[in-house]
Each structure stands twice: as C-alpha cells, then as structure tokens.
Queue: 2 jobs
Job 1
Amino acid sequence: MKSKALLFVIVALFSVLAFPALAQDGPTEITWFVGLGTGTDTAQLEVQQNVVDAFNASQSDIHVTLNIAPSFETAWDTFATLVAAGTPPDIVGPIGVGGSHRAEWLDIGPYIEELGIDLSVFDPSLVALYETANQGYSGLPLLVYPSVTYYNRDLFDEAGLNYPPAEFGAPYVWPDGTETPWDYNTLIEVAKVLTVDASGNDATSADLDTANIVQYGLNFQWARIRLIWTDLQPENTYYDAATNTVSMPDSWREASHWLQDAIWTHHVMPNRAAAVSEALGAGSDNIFQTGKLGMAITPLWYTCCIGNSVGNFEWDIAPVPASLDGEQHVAADADTFRIPASTQNPDAAAQFLYYLATVGIEQLAPAYGGMPALPDFADSYFEAKDAAYPWGVNWQVVIDSLEHTNSGSQHHESWLPNWSQVYDREFAFQTEVEGDTGADVDVDASLDQLIIDVQSIVDQPAS
Amino acid sequence: MATVDQSHTGALPPEVALVGTKNKSGSLQRQQRIWGWIFLSPWLIGFVIFTAAPIIASFIFTFTRFNLGDGSVTFVGLDNWKMLFSDPLTLTSLGVTFKFALIAIPFWLIVPILVASLLNSKSVKGKPLLRTLFYLPYIVPAVSAIFIWQSVMNTQAGWINRILRLLGVQDPPAWLQNESWILVAFMIIGLWGIGNAMLTTLATMQGVPTELYEAAEVDGAGPITKWRKITLPMISPVVFYNLVLLSIGVMNYFVVPYIVSRGTGQPGQSTYFFNMHLYKTAFAYGNMGYGATLAWLIFAICLLITIVLFATSRRWVYYSSGD
C-alpha cells in the first residue's frame, strides 16, 4: 500500500516537473531582468518593485517578477546564462542602444499596432533609434540623455570668463566683448584659460608647467571614442552595410588629431594618468565632480554622479559646441526596455512593456536619471532634478537638444557586425592617444590599423 | 615404499585446495575493488561531470557556432580553427603574452633563487622572520594585492614614484598608463607571488649534503664557485619545476591585467593577454565556439612548451637517482 502511495507521489511529482504547463493554473508568469544598464542601485530597486506591484495589482492575467543582476559587471554573464539555459527573461532593461547589439530582440512592430501605441508623440529621431533593418522596432523610446556641456560656474568666475552660451546658435562672448562661434576651436581657447598649473599659470601661458597641472579646462567625461568623434562630427560613412566595409571618415581623422592636440599640445584635457590621479578623483575618473575641471561634455545621465557638487560648487549646462561642419548636432544616449527574441511569453511581455512605457515611466525616469521621451512626463523629471541641484540649472538646453539629436547610422552606438568587439578595438585606439605615450602616437597610422582590424572583425561570422 | 591413498585422508589435493583459495581471494579482491570504486565514486562522478565532460564538450564546441546571446548552436566544421589565422586579436594577444613571458619568466625564476640563497646563508640573521615576511604576500588574496599595487604605482601619489622623485627622477613613469612600462609593472606586481617558489627552492637548498661543500672547501672552492658548481646543479630539479609552472602560468595570465585594465587591455592593446581575448570572446562577446577554440589553442601551446622543457631538461637538470 505504502509503495503504491509512494509511486503515486513520484508520478505526480514527475508530471508537475515535466509538464509545468499542465501544472500551471493562473496568471502568465513573466520575468523582468534588470542590470544591463542602470537599475541596480538600492533606491532604484524600490521604485522598480513598486512599479511591478502596481502592475500586478492592476490586472490578473500576468504576474511579473523582478530578477536583479548582482552587478552591472556580471549582468551580461547572468543574462547569457539564462538564455543559454532556455529560461530567458521576458523583458529586459533599461538598456542602451549599444548594449542592445549584444543579443537578439523581439520585433515589437506588430504589438505597436495591436496595443495602439502612438509613435507620433515621440521625437522622430528617438523612434529611429529603435527601427530594425526589416522595418520593425526593437524598443520604444523611454529615456533620453542628450549630450550637453557641463560647466563649473565657480571656475569660470575665478578665471574672469563669461559662461558658455545658454542657447543653441548663440556665440561665445569673451570678456572684452568679442564674439566667436561656440564651436570646438572656441572650446579649446576657453579651456586653455581654465587650465591652471600649481604656480597659477594657465594654458595660454608659455610658462605652464605641464607636469603640475592642478585644474583642467575640458574633459569628455566617461565618453568612448565614437561618442567623441560623433560629438565633433556625426558621420554615417564609418560602416557601409551594403558592402560590409569600414572606412575612416576624414572628419573623424580630424577629430582624432583634435583630441591628441587637446591632451598633448594644448594640455587642456587630462591624459589617462592624470585622470586617475588622487587629485582628480582618485581613480574614479569622475573629474568634473572634484571641482577641478572647467567643462565636461557628456550625456545627461551624468547628473547621476555629481551629487558631491552640492555644497561645493555650482554648475550649469550649455549646448554642445557646433560640430566641425559648423552645424549643431547632439549625440544622445537612450535607454529602453526590450523583449528577448527567445521569450516564451511575447504577448504578456509586450503588455508589460506598454505599461512601463506609458505608466511606469513616470516613477522610473527620475530614479534612472533619464529624461522621459514622452514629453508629458518631462516636467516632473526636471522638478526632481531641481530638487537635487537647487541653484537653478538651465534645463531648457536639454529640451532644445532633442531637435538636434543624431539618429540612425549617425548615432555613436549605431550597429555594425560584432559590435562589442569593434567597440573594444575602438577603445584601444582611444587609450593609445590618452595613454602616457599618446603624444608620440602617429594618429593616422593608428587609425589605418584600426580600420584594418575593425574590417577583419566585421568580416568574422556574427557572434 | 608404501603409498598412501590421499583420497582417504580427507585432505584435498593441493591443486584443488589452491583453486578454492583462489576463488576466495578472487571474491575478496572483487569485493574490495567494488568498494574501492564505491568510495572513489564521489570524486569520479565529480571529475566526469565537472572536468571530463566540459573538456569533451569544449572540444565539440570548437566545431560549432555556439552563441551565448541567443543560445543557438550551429555546426561550422573547421571555421573556428581557420579563424585563428585571420583574427587580428589572436595574433595581438599571443604577441603580448609571449612578450610578457620573455620579460617576466626569467625575473620570476631568478629572484626566488636569489632570495632563497640569501636565506640559506649562514651570515644572515633573523631567517625565520625573513622567511615569513617573504612568504606573507603569497597568502594575500590576488585581487586585494592588485588594488594595493595600483595605489603603490599611482603616477602622482604612489610611493614608488614618490621615492623616485626623492632620488632625483624628475619624470617617473606612469607605470599603469604607459605602454612601455606596464608589463614591467606587472612583473613587479608578480614578485608578490614568489613566496612559494622561494620556499621550495630554500627547502631543496637545505637538503644539499653538507659534505659536498666541505669537500669543495678542501679543494679551495670559494662561495661563488660552491654556489655555481654545487648549489645550482643540486637545486636544478626544483628550478625546472618552477620553470614549468611559470611557463604554464604566464600563458594563462589573466587576473592582474583584467583588473588593472578593467578588462579592456589598455593602454592601447598592450595588456590584451591571450586569456583576456579568450574570456572576452566566450563570455563578453558570447561566441562560445570560437572561445573554446582559443582555449584549445592555448592548451596546445602549453603542452608544446612543456614537452620542449622536458626534452631539454636532460641536458641541464641533475637527478641524483639518475632518472
């Protein structure tokens, strides 16, 4: 009798384990994986859980569970393991444009129609970021981070300089009243005045002690080389998908020389060794926050990381300088949520994605630090930022920047085959120029080698 | 002579008795073998699941395009092996690894011998303390040690450069940001790991028969001659042992460059070691098939180096047993 009961239990257990679908009776279970971008900070966890709880309470067909990666550094490993094990998450994010090139995502085009999502409420350049080669969409614009020029008001005052222009198209006004276009040449000249050595000489002086610079004029805070190239001049000729060939645009060569000169000839930008020195952030590379950097060009997400400025110095934002062609272009980062192509529950995931994009985003955007792509939610975002930085930051620059964002193949994280490998190879070039021997680097020869290597990488089968 | 019919004594003929004993002992041996396998089985099962199967699987992966990003596996024949010759990063990373091997192995081999010789000297006081001090860094976790060394080698604030400035060096190197200096910096960091090699060398030195030194002294040999003609040959087996371990270790060098360059191989590609390429290919780029191929390539290189070292060892390693 006992053995029959035991047999029954074993069979029942086997049935439950082997045929989970038969055992499942209730809402569709889906998982939201967080960690491939922002979202793992303690404060963010609470907000995300609140959004999940609110969604679960709002209906009974779908039940969402959060899966938080232990850290950003290990998140891709965790995600890859989940996919390889056949248990992929159903929704992933927030995740940037570049990071999304590392996996296969579901085309949500059919769901956009089915759920009645109106794409016209978004800026077209942001929608274009998520268009796929087959006219579909891999995500919805949710959070956008245009590049801006952060500047330290105190250092400008101390140097007797006027602040950078407050709006696009306005010139830079020098203390003697002369005006010059707000471009990358002017930027260098302003940065020279802001770069000071231990004896108080600035970079306009021949007496500047380059080994003892205590304050720098400019940095592209945490920017990778393609973002810097694109800041100076967006191009769509780097990778030609039709012929699968890579070539170096002339403007990017010019931009590379500009970068090398800024670091090693004008000495207005810190090299690698200086960037990780005790004086400039002790290895964190967060130079602007130390109060010893005049200007930093970087996307809006950097507001995440200058909390220490409060009480120490006041900063503001200005438009990025005009590019080498004299036009205004803005490189913008963007975050979204995506559905892995291997999800078992695409319909439920799409419904939750729609909820995040239209309801959850109001709570999530301030927590993530990105400006909501939906204009309706922009005000609450800036109110939260004003509360954090109460001296009156010119947020209008952010709104105006959206008119100038680079999209499609001009985007600094636009796709090309084996994107991650190319990204790493490009960074190797950047560290050559920024490294301690950067002054001696033959930029043209290094760029030629870079193109040879990148071509070889894109020629390899996609990984 | 009378004969006895043994069939009436009750005793079994010797050959029959032997068969019975054999049966008993065979059964016992079989039982012992079974129990032996049972007791060994936890390790064996673990070995098969966690070592043998992954080794075989990784070899099979070399013939596939196994994408971790979407979990897809496609048979591609020898494509991954062919790619070894066209992938620029494979050549670059092998170049970095061999360059570092040429710099680091002699240094990491010689310094423990010199330290062990120092500690074996009669004229050095406080040997137990010195032995402990030299061995101590070996037990510091590698990651902690690397973070400490990053501070020590900081261009502006690190105490190495502070000392160099005090000594009059106006422009000391940016150890970890300079392509020319960073491998030297790694070599210096690696000195923290010499404790084990130093200890085994010292133990071998202390085992050298004293009568050899006494006989050499009678023949008029000085300290350097004794060290060169007696100590060095007698410790050559342990030098060989350290050389083999170092060669394999350098081919698999990963943790230090990975942490220092944050997995980028910077500055430039100067710290893009082969194992970093392997790791990034398999786990960062999700190309498990090609990653497995890289793993088998470095295994083959390690095997070749080891074979060459063993082949040459007969010429310079002294074995007292004659083996």
Job 2
Amino acid sequence: MKKELVIIGGGPAGLAAAVAAYDSGVRDILILERDTSLGGILQQCIHNGFGLHRFGEELTGPEYAARYVKQVQERGIQSLCGTMVLSVSPDKTVTAMNKQMGIFTLEATAVILAMGCRERPRGALSIPGTRPAGIFTAGTAQRFVNMEGYLPGKEVVILGSGDIGLIMARRMTLEGAKVKAVCELMPYSGGLNRNIVQCLQDFDIPLHLSTTVSRIHGKERVTGVSIAGVDERLQVIPETETYIPCDTLLLSCGLLPENELTKSAGIPLDTITGGATVNQNRETALEGVFACGNVLHVHDLVDFVSEEAVLAGNAAAAYIQGNAPAKDTSLTVKAAGKVRYTVPQRIDSASQEVALFFRVGSVADNAVLTVKCGDKVLLTKKKRRMTPGEMESVRLSAKLLAEAEGELTVSVD
Amino acid sequence: MKPTVAVIGGGVVGSLIARELTKYHLKVVLIEAREDVATGATGANSAIVHGGFDPVPGTLKAKLNVKGAAMMPALAEDLGVSYKNNGSLVLAFSEKEMEHVRKLYDRGIENGVPGLSVLNAEELQALEPNISKEAVGALLCSSAGIVCPYSLAVAAAGNAADNGAELLLASPVTAIEKQDGKFLLTCGEHTVEADYVLNCAGVRSDEVARLIGDDSFSIKPRAGEYLLLDKSEGDTVSHTIFQTPNEMGKGILVTPTVHGNLLVGPTALNIEDKSDTSTTREGLAFVRSTAMRSVPNLNFRAVITSFTGVRSVPSCEDFIIRFSEKDAKFLHVAGIESPGLSSAPAIAPYVVQLLADAGLALEKNEQFDGKRKSYHWFSSLSMEEKNAVIRENPAFGRVVCRCETVTEGEIVDAIHRAPKATTLDGLKHRLRSGMGRCQGGFCTPLLVEILARELGISPMEVQKSTLGSNLLIEKTKEVAE
C-alpha cells in the first residue's frame, strides 16, 4: 500500500504533525499508534499544567490530548491504533503489525518519526543490591495508578527528581502512600522548579540533592533502600550511607528517545540527544524522513513538542508537494562551553528565521549565550540563570543566517 | 506398576535428567522448591558451553564436559533452544600466561577437546579486532559455544512433562522417610512415593542429603556478579573471551549471548546465605575494570541490567555423582559447578546408566518424543505464515513487549504450556518479555493484566517471581470498593 505521509506515533508530536501536514494540504495521511488509543503518554498524565503556552489555559494531559485528537478526527485523518511498527527501511517502507491486518507494509513518500521516549530503567543505573518486586520507573507506576487503578506501594523512596518522579511523589501521597524521600544524584534537580514547589514542598517531601540510592534491600518485595551522599565525581561516600525502610522504589532518572526504528532506517543519531540529527525543519539525514517531539530530544513541556511537530508536519507536506525550500546553505551547529547539544544540528536554508533549542550541562548563573561563526560573534544574550532541567532557545534571523557560513558555535559561559 | 523416580531440583541438571528418564517406562516426578524451574544457578550464569580444556584429565568434569559440549547442539535443536557455536579464546597478556595457555592446550588434547589451536598476537587481532593490543596470544577453542541456560531447563522440564513426567512446583522437600522399601518425600502440600531419589538440588543438595542423614559433603555458595549490555554492543566480540587464570583469580569473561546481548562477568565471592543474589558496588566495579583488560572499549553506558548468580561449590574437587552411602537408591547429582551447564546433556544419560547398573529396569518408552516447539516459533515464521497465524488468532498481532517484540499470543501460549509461566520472571525466562532495553517499563502493566486474566486471579495477586513478590499493593481510592 502506498501512503503520502506515514506518522509513527499517535502521541502529542504525531497528532500535531498530522494536523499541520493536513492544513498544509496533504490528505493521504496515516498515523500508526501502538497503544489502544491516540494521545500517547499524555493519557496517563492526569495532573494539570499542560497547554499554558499552546492554549493559554491549564489542561490535564488527557484534555490536552483530546484537543488534538478532536482536530485529527475533524479533518478525517486516518489512524490505526494497537499497531506496532516493526521496521522502517531506508527507502521509507514502513512494516507494521496489528491484530486486524497482521503484518503489512506501507510505501511512504514521507515519514514522520514521533515515537517518544522511554524511561531509564534500574538496570541501566546498576544500583547494587537485590532484585525484588517493588522497583518501578515513575512512568510505570503512573500507569498503574492512573490507568489501571492500582497502587504499587505504600512507603516510597524516589530516585531522581525528573518531572515524572516529582509528579508521582505528589500522586502517591494523594493516594495515601508515604513518600519518604526524593534523592537526586546531581547537585540540582532535573525537574521544573514549579514541580519542586507544587509536588514536594507543598507536601513536606524532602529532596536530598547529591544523594543516590546505594543499595536495594529485600528478597521478595523491597524492604528498604540505603541512600548515600555522592562526591564531585558522583561516587558514593560510604560513611554517609543511611537506611530507609520502604516497600517501593520509584525511578525518575532520565528519559531516552526511542530510536530503534530510526536506527533500522540507517539514520544517524546525535550521541548527546539520542535522537536523529536534523535540520531546521526537523528533517533527518534521510530525505523525506522527519522527527519531532521526545523521539528527537526530550522536552520539558508538551506545548513545545506540539510546536516542534508543526515544523515537521509543514516540512513533510512541502516535501510531498515538491515545494520544499531550496537547500541554499550548509551550516552545522556546534555546542560549546556549557551547552550540551542543540536542535537542529544543521541549517540548510537561510530563507527563514530559525529557533535553536539547547540545554546546558550544568547550572550557569549570570549566563552569557554567544552564537559565533568562526571568530565572528553573531549574537549574544544574557540570562540570570540557566539549568539543565529547562530547555533554552535562541532565535537566529534570516539576515543573521545569510551572513554565516560553515559552522555556527553556540556556547554558554 | 512402573517404578517411580523422584528428581529433586528443577535446574538444568534435574530437568534434563527428568527428560532422559521419560525415555523409559518409568514414573518420573520432578520436584522444584520454587514457583518455576530454572530459578537457581541455572537462571544466572555465564551461559557458556565450554570446550572442556580446563578440567583436570580423568575427572568426571573432564569426561562429562567434553561429551556434553558435543551433545549440546543437537539437544538444543530438539528442544527449540538457542545455541551458537561461537568458539572461545583464552587471552594471555605475558609470556608466563602464554605458558599456561599452552598447558591448557595440552590438557585439552588429553581430554579429547576438538578444535584447539594456539594463536599469536597477530592471529588473535585478525580474529577479534576489539581485543586489547596488550594480549600476546590466546588459546582458540572453536568447538566452544553459547546457549540459553534457563530456556534449556524450561524446555527440558516441559519436554519431560510432554512425555509423561509429573511436575511439582512450589514444593520444597522438607522430609524424606523410608517405608516398606520406598521413599516418602514431603514436599509442600504433596507427598511423593518413590523407588529412587535423585538429589539435583543445586546449592541446597547438601541440605537434601541431610534429610536422609547423609553429611558426606557440603555445598558452599559462591556469588558471581554480571553486567548485561544492550544488543547494540552484542557484536563487540564474536568469541567468548576468557582471561588466563592468575594470582588475581580466574578473571572476567566477555561474551556475546545467544540473544545478541553482551555479557560481562562474573566475580567470585564466597558468601554465607545461599539465597543472596544481591549485587555490590565493589563487585560491579571489579567486573567493569577487569573486563576492560580484555576489551578496552567496552561501552558500559549500554548496561541494561546487572545480576548475581550463586554457584554450588562442593567440598571436593569434582562433581558429586554417586549413590549415597546411607541408601543405595538415593543418588546425588551435586556440586555441579562450572562446567555444569556444558556437562548437563551428558550428565543425564550418565545418571540413567548409574540407575540401570544399580538394578533399575529400563524398558524403552516407544512414545517418547524428544522434540519440543520453541517459545519463539512465531518470530521464526515468514511474513505469510505469521499472517496466517494472526488470522487464526489475532492475539499474535498484538505486540506487548516492544523491545523484544513479544506478542500477546506468545504470552498466552507460555502461560498455558508446561511448565506453565505464572509470574513475570517466568514469562521473561521463556519469552524475554521485559528483558530488553526498557526492562519492562512499558510492558509490565500489560503483562500483569494478561497474567491475571489467564490465571483467573486479581492483578494484586500477580507475582514478580516467588511468593510474596507482589507488584501491586491495593486499589486506588477511586476504584476501591
């Protein structure tokens, strides 16, 4: 079967990309979603705080998802749920499987990758100790509580202060569990400041920075964890080890873009973001294949995911219609100083303003952002504080881009 | 009436023996203490089929290893278990270690190991480009291989059951009496009457021996910690890479697994508690640093899990495979430490021969069918064949574990096929569900739902592994009655 546009993933990125592509004139669109309904991980995020930027009001996750699902339905955009994509080939053949159709292939003119991300599991953290029941990633616990209606534990320690961990600290508390501590390996939290206030401080849940879980105890079910301070090299300081009895350990230690399909298509990835390297339109190194949302780089807010998806959706439409902007320049964007990565990593058209998104690798107070081309400073910007937990951006005008060639360096010092 | 043989212990040794016994007209009962087979040393080891150059010539270890390794490919094929003849290398980092390598070569030749050769540095680099440039040479054993040990035990127990063996799970043997010439075994809620008893209880086989007053040997637990790396690292090396044993110990191995991951380990630490499978900070750090001597560019950022296996180290040097001095119908198959997995295929017929020599009448079971359908039969089908299966049973079209591409159809099959998977770990050991890079992050809630549905229990009763390892504590406020 031929399809003009195949979108892999029916979460916020895939939905917004579909709507944008449709509104740009593409009609032959198919969204493939592995879960039983559209909306992605938003469906289990029943807390509010979504949509402030996009809709100017606070919505819950399912409400935010519903708005996009409605837009997709109003446009009559096709989708297949319960459908797992098995591979994407370099010639844009998408192989997928579901209960109704079995295994089938789609020959796509353009593909948008919107598979989202997964959580870093316990194993990847190599936490010493036993392997009992009661260790969950925060997102798995969230699904059990919010979707399945079961509480996975009553006395909880959380490792990692990522946003899902903070949200789950509050959620478990509201469900009658006792959250005894949130431990964060780094000297700063990886989550949004508003979540630290609203989810921890408001509930008197202690946040221990520069602290990790040094050992897990319990044979069948978790009976407790040892926590310990860490030194500058993030190594456990054994003398500081203390024991906390608990029946559950939740992990919120980072999100990893799910790019197995991207790799199967032979598309190169950025080793820092874990997502594909893309141009300003979120086109990967494989022409006609675009990526957006958390599969590309992990975002703080779903609003920004939607925004990025519009870029990808519009660009996919232009590609399909044969009016993609001319690739009239070839700029690579390099991260330097405290900047860990940028998205996009390359700019190949100087006809429009480009927003560069980036994160710093450590806290920068009185930060000075500099964009340079060779020795030439194109732009500087000051900010009181930049933290790894909050994505930053800088806009480069078409005029500024026209002056640049070769390599752009983005640094924070 | 058919004579009854009770096999205590559902590890790879006990399971293969039980299967071997079903080739004859016998009543076979396989008794396992835990909720599933293959949960002890079988569930956590290096998964290596050793060539057999290491054991001292003339020992049971030497004889059974070489024989077992030769039997493994056909056995794995029959049981639908993954095996790969990838070959092994013992690295030498000095002329002194080269001497040891040559000694191992000579010993291997004496043991009858096929495919041995001594490589120089150049030949080694040509074979394995990611090996340390410090290595001066190696022993190549091209007959060595890798296998999935728990799949082997599960399939052997399942095939034994298919051929008429009775499987008693969650049935720890707590007492053995002798009445009118027959054994009476108390195991959990069951009492088993048997003419012969085989003690294959692994790390607890000395405790089982004590039940008939036999204290002729003891078993000490020795922990080995491992790191498992993502499939992205699976082709870092193609052979199993050993280090030459030196004053620092036996060294750390680096090996691909049959599933395409990379396995690194183990440590060797004598412990007190036989059920202590915890990992330690020091142990994992030792594994990392020591493994990098062999393969300097190992990518430990790709670790997906770490685990500890407990070896059964006997109070004597060799395997203990003999009748008890306390009872001539009670056979120990104990102290099966490395190369136990490699030897297991040969241990089974050896044990049956011992029983025959002791007077057990063996009448061939003509109905015996030694072949078993692999748990992964679906994934090995062509697209057309898969679609035919999905049309018949749509559950095969629903992917539940995304990392390892395991469908609902395969999960339901594993829950109902002997030995039945009744826990999350049981499913993992059969299908690899939850064993991939996300380690069950996405599929755990789905697996809990399917287990509860198929077993007719509440999701709150679903266990991770053993009794008491429930995942869910109570219903949330909204849905509480």
